[in-house]
Amino acid sequence: MSEIECISTEDAAAPITPERARGRRARTGCSIADVARACGVSAMTVSNVVNNRGAEVSLQTRERVLQAVRSLNYRPGVNAVQRRRTLTHALGVIFPDAGNELTENLYFAAVLSGIVTRATAHEQVVSLFAPELWSDVFASLRKYTDGRCDGLIVVTSNREIDILGALIERGVPFVCLSGAHENPQAPSITVDNTYGVEQAVRHLLDLGHTRIGNLQGLQLADDAVERSAAFKSLTESLGCDADPRLVVNGSFTRSSGCAGALSLLDQDASSRPTAIVCANDRIAIGVLDAARQLGLRVPDDLSIVGFDDILTAEITEPGLTTVRQPLKQMGSAAVDILLERIDDLNGPVQKLVMRPELIVRGSTARKPSINRTKG
Q1: Contact 151, 172 (CB under 8 A)
Q2: Among the listed ranges 43-47, 149-153, 176-180, 321-325, which one has the minimum average pLDDT value?
């Protein structure tokens, strides 16, 4: 049986962030001694800089070392470690907030199930890194790449913090799940968000809805950005009401869904939406909470569509119509791609896009002929 090790991340040093190289042609396969000679410093000084150790190094020397690191394409994850290490047969999984939300975040639970099942088949151990914030991931990168794991699965990504760029710089095998859509150097597994949103919107149009609300996820996540852009494009092209008041930014949480829905639905009957498309199922369940608070019947007064098809989507009351992501299959595929990267870091960068499926349940129905007054 594969084991899961939960690792806190409180005291690791920050990763290197080298300046853009100038004046020399990049090459591969250089050693720490090559970098030291190029800078006119000792190999120990180079090691202290790239590993961010506490030894006294002047700012000028540090900048000179970092420039040489980039110029010579020195990758400590490959050049300094990989030649001497043996495989640990351990795969790391990075997911911020997993430690706090693992029991309630059924999206991650399904992904992790796929990862663990596939890892077990390959006789791999799974280590779960559970930082609280994306900034903690960046600060703890040295810990994740110290050799305890052969490679990393990064679940989702954050557009403000370039974790993937730092992993590429260090030469660490990794795959990003539900992120890195536009990074050509980052292996990734994603779902076709545009197709999924289109299925949701067309389903509601077929039911007669044209005034459709949209509760969005955190816009630092690639999936949220793609789903938001798809909704805007589709509603404009398909003849829906393009009213900016129908769109509410939020986060991928139930409480955010409830608050966003209360904002959307706090209008007179002729102005509020008759249907809401949600960026994930947790948001959609929050909309169900809001509808109950307002005395609105789902789906008679309001239709709701989620995204993900987490375990609770089919046991809500009513059952949630949603766009199903193949979450377990995505986790499984992440293991396969990561193992290929571990075997050959210089192989093709795979970008796997999976197609979601609309699952129709009881939370959607034909548009009501007259919007009922709340309460």
Answers
A1: yes
A2: 43-47
